[in-house]
């Protein structure tokens, strides 16, 4: 009854019971009905307790910035919410409210925001994201807010934020950054006092010295930085030699260094410590921090694993390895601290292709205290598990390997019935993405279970180059002029499924969206003989003009620049819109879906492609179907009801089409 969703809360004590007493904080469906706007939840940004004088000594969160999208677009309405009254704080009461734009905002303090948004001409980059950051004081007009940082129009975006590390015995960092491309950035950082977070005319700022000046962080531009306590974390996308002739740190590594030393003396004057160094088949994924521990999430051969480090207070707070998972497993895992200010408890969530999401309460300290070496000793108790959404009895999950055109081994996951007959008649769905260093991996997808696996089909996910499954190297192997590697990998997986008699071309469907939609477009034009059906969702397809449409300019680091020789040298080759061959008599049936409200990948890509196919395909065997949802943004649907319809539409199209390709 709530397709748009509920924002709600519950006490830990109640949550542990079989019937938790939830308190609804915000009913999105009720709000949409009252305001006659199809609101889509895009997230919340709470006011940190440590910077809120109204938080009752840091015991509760009192305010949050909510991002609400009209119809699912990336552009959002920013509205401040009072978590004590469960009501919005209107602008007439000095609440922070901004109209629709691709806004980025965070609290500097209770009465000061750092905001990037569309403030008129010159305030957005060519990619449509904020080019300036303003410091907005409560009770003042946003038009009068001081511009404190700005980038260039050619940047992807700029940002500014506060990283308060006092709870880990570190300082308060103020960070500013320019995203030069999708994968390169410049950072400026300074340490400040609490009083510097306040409005310029706040009485608490009287007599306080001016803050330190910003220092540009001396790292290579394709590195990412973050802070934990006194340490600066540096994630590398390329090999790095901070001191000429000194030690070289490997691409894909996560290292850390004393932040103060780095900011004051630069990279050559710092001592570095390695947290993670990748192998050819492992990659750093993310991390979480509790009061005393650092939890590192990595993937080994597309399997999840957690490693635990402790802040050693007897050795300058360095991070010391204390244990972790013994073996990587085929599952998705997430570790997130419950309260890094006070405890070492963390939420631990797992799911797999056939296992619904399960939430555990865990304790990082139990890793260190464990002596039996059994693994997963950090789990304290199982809290909740989603009920199975489909019958997974008899299903098996296998990791297989295909060999690409250049000899590269490409892993993929195959989910199928144990007793599947290898006669090529199993309707098989192959999903892929292969871009932007995004990894695919085991996770519970109820829709593929209900609409595909329960019917007896096989579900496959291909870990092709361009993704992040094996770190930056795997991603960079398919950039720009090497994009063909991603497509060759996908083709290799498809051919391997056929050669092992899981399916044949007429019983093999391919599906992908966004960058995966570009993948589908290329499968359609490159290998029309290989697939029995294709679902191409919210796609890029016209690579000659993609950079002129909406956020397209931000992706040139991934694909290339069509206004340079890139077009003739390689982009033209994988622009599906330009690769339709009038001499082909038969293309596989294809469903193209998009959204009118997609303000990331313009629906023109899908519209133009379908129109061209319809026009050129008259009299030929080119069945093409098109559905455009008027809402949904880049996700394709604005609520669970729309999502269910769009998903059923795609799966039924593919299933019904493939069933016609079976043979006796």
Give an account of the 3D structure.
With 664 residues, the chain is an alpha+beta fold. Helix content is 16%, strand content 33%. The chain has twelve helices and 35 strands. It has an eight-stranded mixed beta sheet with strand order 28-29-31-30-32-33-34-35, sandwiched between helices. Strands 3, 4, 5, 6 and 7 form a five-stranded antiparallel beta sheet that branches. A four-stranded antiparallel beta sheet has the order 8-9-10-11, with no helix packed on it. Strand 4 and strand 5 form a beta hairpin. Helix 5 (446-453) packs parallel to helix 12 (640-659). The longest helix has 20 residues, at 640-659. The mean pLDDT is 96.
Topology:
Blueprint: E1 6-9, H1 12-15, E2 23-27, H2 28-35, E3 39-46, E4 63-70, E5 76-82, E6 87-88, E7 97-101, E8 104-109, E9 112-116, E10 132-137, E11 146-150, E12 157-164, E13 172-179, E14 185-192, E15 215-216, E16 224-228, E17 231-235, E18 254-258, H3 259-265, E19 272-276, E20 282-289, E21 293-300, E22 303-312, E23 318-324, E24 332-337, E25 345-351, E26 358-363, H4 365-369, E27 379-385, E28 395-403, E29 409-417, E30 428-431, H5 446-453, E31 458-462, H6 472-476, H7 484-499, E32 508-513, H8 515-526, E33 533-537, H9 556-559, H10 566-569, E34 590-595, H11 604-616, E35 624-629, H12 640-659
Parallel strand pairs: 30-31, 30-32, 32-33, 33-34, 34-35
Antiparallel strand pairs: 1-2, 3-4, 4-5, 5-6, 5-7, 8-9, 9-10, 10-11, 12-13, 13-14, 14-15, 16-17, 17-18, 18-19, 20-21, 21-22, 22-23, 24-25, 25-26, 26-27, 28-29, 29-31
Helix pairs in contact: 5-12
């Amino acid at each position: 009854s709530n397709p748009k969703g509920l924002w709600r809360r519950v006490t830990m004590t109640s949550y542990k019971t079989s019937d938790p007493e939830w308190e609804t904080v915000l009913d999105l469906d009720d709000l949409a009905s009252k305001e006659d706007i199809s609101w889509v939840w895009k997230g919340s940004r709470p006011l940190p307790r440590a910077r809120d004088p109204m938080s009752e000594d840091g015991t509760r969160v009192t305010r949050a910035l909510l991002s609400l999208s009209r119809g699912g677009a990336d552009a959002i309405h920013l509205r401040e919410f009072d978590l004590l009254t469960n009501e919005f704080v209107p602008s007439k009461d000095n609440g922070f409210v901004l109209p629709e734009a691709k806004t980025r905002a965070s609290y500097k303090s209770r009465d000061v925001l750092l905001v990037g948004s569309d403030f008129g001409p010159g305030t957005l980059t060519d990619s449509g994201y904020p080019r300036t950051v303003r410091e907005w004081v409560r009770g003042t007009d946003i038009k009068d807010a001081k511009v404190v940082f700005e980038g260039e129009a050619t940047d992807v975006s700029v940002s500014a934020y506060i990283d308060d590390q006092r709870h880990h015995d570190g300082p308060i960092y103020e960070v500013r950054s320019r995203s030069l491309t999708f994968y390169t950035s410049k950072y400026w950082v300074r340490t400040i006092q609490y009083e510097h977070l306040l409005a310029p005319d706040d009485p608490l700022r009287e007599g306080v010295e001016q803050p330190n000046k910003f220092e540009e962080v001396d790292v290579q531009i394709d590195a990412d930085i973050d802070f934990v306590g006194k340490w600066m974390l540096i994630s590398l996308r390329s090999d790095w030699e901070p001191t000429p002739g000194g030690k070289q740190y490997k691409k894909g590594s996560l290292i850390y260094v004393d932040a103060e030393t780095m900011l004051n003396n630069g990279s050559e004057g710092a001592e570095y410590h390695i947290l993670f160094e990748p192998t050819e088949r492992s990659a750093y994924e993310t991390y979480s921090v509790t009061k005393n521990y650092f939890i590192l999430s990595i993937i080994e051969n597309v399997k999840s694993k957690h490693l635990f480090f402790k802040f050693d207070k007897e050795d300058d707070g360095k991070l010391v390895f204390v244990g972790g998972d013994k073996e990587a497993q085929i599952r998705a895992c997430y570790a997130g601290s419950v309260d890094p200010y006070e405890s070492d408890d963390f939420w631990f969530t797992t799911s797999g292709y056939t296992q619904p999401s399960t939430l555990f309460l865990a304790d990082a300290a139990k890793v260190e205290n464990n002596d039996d070496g059994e693994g997963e000793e950090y789990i304290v108790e199982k809290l909740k598990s989603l009920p199975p959404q489909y019958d997974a009895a008899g299903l098996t999950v296998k990791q297989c390997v295909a060999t690409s055109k250049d000899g590269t081994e490409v892993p993929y996951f195959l989910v199928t019935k144990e007793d599947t007959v290898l006669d090529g008649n199993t309707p098989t769905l192959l999903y892929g993405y292969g871009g932007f260093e995004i990894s695919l991996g085991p996770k519970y997808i109820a829709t593929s279970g209900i609409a595909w696996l329960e019917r007896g089909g096989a579900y496959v996910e291909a870990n092709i180059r361009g993704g992040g499954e094996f770190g930056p190297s795997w991603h960079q192997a398919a950039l720009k002029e090497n994009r063909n590697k991603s497509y060759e990998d996908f083709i290799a997986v498809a051919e391997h499924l056929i050669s092992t008699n899981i399916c044949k071309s007429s019983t093999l469907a391919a599906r992908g969206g966004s960058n995966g939609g570009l993948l589908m477009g290329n499968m359609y034009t490159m290998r029309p003989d290989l697939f029995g059906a294709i679902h191409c969702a919210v796609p890029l397809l016209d690579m000659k003009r993609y950079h002129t449409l909406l956020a397209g300019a931000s992706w040139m680091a991934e694909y290339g620049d069509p206004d340079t020789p890139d077009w003739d040298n390689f982009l033209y080759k994988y622009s599906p819109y330009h690769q339709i061959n009038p001499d082909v008599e038969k293309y596989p049936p294809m469903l193209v879906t998009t959204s009118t409200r997609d303000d990331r990948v313009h629906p023109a890509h899908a519209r133009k492609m379908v129109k061209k196919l319809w026009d050129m395909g008259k009299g030929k065997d080119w069945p093409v179907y098109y559905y455009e949802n008027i809402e949904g943004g880049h996700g394709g649907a604005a609520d669970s009801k729309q999502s269910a319809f769009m998903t059923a539409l795609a799966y039924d199209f593919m299933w019904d089409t493939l069933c016609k390709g079976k043979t006796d």
